[in-house]
From TrEMBL:
SUPFAM superfamilies: Protein kinase-like (PK-like) (SSF56112). Residues 172-370 form the CHK kinase-like domain. InterPro entries: CHK_kinase-like, EcKL, Kinase-like_dom_sf. Signal peptide: none annotated. Pfam families: EcKL (PF02958). This is CHK kinase-like domain-containing protein.
């Protein structure tokens, strides 16, 4: 489940003709028929190919014995496709309930299957599906076990069952965390203060784990992270239609701040526009690991990729992150800045910023001290982290500008429909500029105002750490 990358995916499809040229009623019947065929195909694939492999791995049953493998019988398989109304996704993703018999006993397992869609090889490559799935597989098979050692087995994560990484396809199968009371929030954006506090405390705790691994055993840290691939800025070429979206999103930001926050200095806004006008060159520099703050980060810590547990009053108590496809070694502020930009509105973020930031820092420091038995290094003090947060604000605000509207007013298209949905440049511009209306405009303007105020207050230029000579002039 991706966020900023998701819109990029919509703009990289090669065949965009089918849905647009087909009558709406025919499309509905086609989708129903396709879904039924998909369920049958996936059930057969699970039953005959995948489940025997998971059984043989020992992950399906704790009491598995090869001598009793012939007693394994697959029964009913339910498949429930996760649609766009629940989450914005690029992949084929579904929940499945599997009933089976082993050694005379009946069992049931609930899983989530995530697969790459059927796309041409050039599209598969342009979206970097191989790198995205490779990172996630690396997390569950290599990195998570080490984190669990540091966390005494208390790091919340779905159970890993199976994965494949092929030249033009990939799959990851995990446990269904809903079975244990976890769920994604009903709201796509604008989470409450309570949700924000739980999220940033957990994030601080996670970064405390990863710093502890790095500082106690640097060689082990390098070994764990050496195979992670750049999954967002590896390609220099941007699809032309995505470029249209990016340019339109910059114009929307300019109009929004001029309309709703006109006090923001014009030269400051121009500097922001200059930085983000080439999202690849700027983004590649911004997320590059820089010492001493670099550590292991989620890379896409947003509402779509976290699940909460609630008490009987529906107050959030715990949180668990998932979808580790954009895992990277970078500044921890990539996670904090993007979460606060994409998942929290200004009425919560701006009003309570200091206490939210304190929550993150306190959790980070407590986690670090607990797992290293050492004091927190000076370069991780609150002031230094806040300055780093400010450096990442152009990055997070640029994501808000080009993607928030999709969360506020989603298109409702599945990944399959996205591939077949043809859209002219004019339509792309219109959708980017207008979708979400005043709510989105005000939020973008507020984020620019917050960036301006923090930059001035703490004397941190937003281009700090960026080689501006390497960026194209506009």
């Amino acid at each position: 489940m991706l966020t900023a990358e998701a819109y990029k995916y919509c703009c990289t499809a090669n065949d965009r003709s089918v849905i647009r040229r087909t009558p709406r009623r025919s499309v509905t019947y086609c989708i129903i028929e396709t879904t039924m065929t998909l369920i049958e195909t996936e059930s057969q694939w699970l039953s005959t190919i995948i489940l025997p492999k998971i059984l043989a791995s020992g992950r399906l049953l704790d009491n598995y014995s090869e001598s009793k493998a012939d007693t394994f019988r697959v029964g009913d398989i339910d498949v429930n496709v996760i649609g766009p109304k629940e989450a914005f996704m690029l992949t084929l993703c579904y929940r499945t309930t599997i009933r089976f018999e082993y050694d005379g006993e009946q069992y049931e397992r609930k899983m989530v299957v995530k697969k790459t869609p059927m796309v041409p090889p050039d599209v598969y490559e342009s979206i970097q599906f191989g790198d995205l799935f490779g990172n996630e597989i690396d997390f569950y098979t290599k990195i998570l076990p080490q984190i669990q050692k540091v966390a005494d087995g208390k790091f919340a994560a779905p159970k890993y069952y199976y994965s494949e990484l092929n030249p033009c396809s990939a799959v990851v199968i995990l446990s269904d965390f809903a079975e244990n009371g976890w769920r994604v929030t009903k709201d796509r954006v604008g989470l409450s203060l309570e949700h924000a506090r739980v999220a940033v405390k957990y994030l601080g705790k996670f970064h405390g784990f990863t710093y502890a691994i790095k500082h106690k055993n640097l060689e082990k840290f390098k070994e764990l992270t050496e195979n992670l691939k750049e999954s967002r800025y590896a390609n220099d070429t941007i699809h032309p239609q995505y470029l249209v979206t990016l340019k339109a999103s910059v114009q929307r930001a300019l109009l929004a701040v001029a309309t709703y926050q006109p006090q923001v200095d014009e030269d400051f806004v121009k500097k922001f526009v200059f930085l983000i006008s080439d999202s690849v060159k700027y983004g590649r520099q911004r997320v590059a690991p820089r010492e001493p703050l670099a550590t292991l980060c989620h890379g896409d810590y947003v509402r779509n990729n976290v699940a909460y547990k609630y008490d009987d009053k529906e107050e959030p108590q715990e949180i668990m992150m998932f979808d580790y496809q954009t895992l990277r070694v970078s500044s921890p502020m990539i996670d904090l800045s993007v979460f606060l930009a994409i998942s929290i509105y200004a009425d919560v973020r701006y009003t309570h910023f200091d206490s939210i930031f304190d929550d993150y820092c306190t959790a980070l420091y407590d986690s670090y001290r607990k797992h290293t038995k050492d004091e927190v290094p000076e370069f991780m003090n609150r002031t230094e982290l806040l300055k780093e947060y400010i450096r990442f604000l152009p990055y997070s605000v640029s994501i808000t500008s080009c993607f928030l509207f999709e969360l506020v007013e989603p298109s409702g298209l599945s990944s399959e429909e996205m591939f077949k949905n043809e859209m002219s440049d004019e339509k792309v511009i219109e959708r980017t500029m207008k979708t979400g209306g005043e709510l989105v405009d005000r939020e973008i303007a507020n984020q620019l105002k917050e960036m301006f105020e923090l930059s001035r207050k703490y004397n941190v230029p937003i281009e700090d750490g960026i080689d501006v000579d390497a960026l194209p002039k506009i």
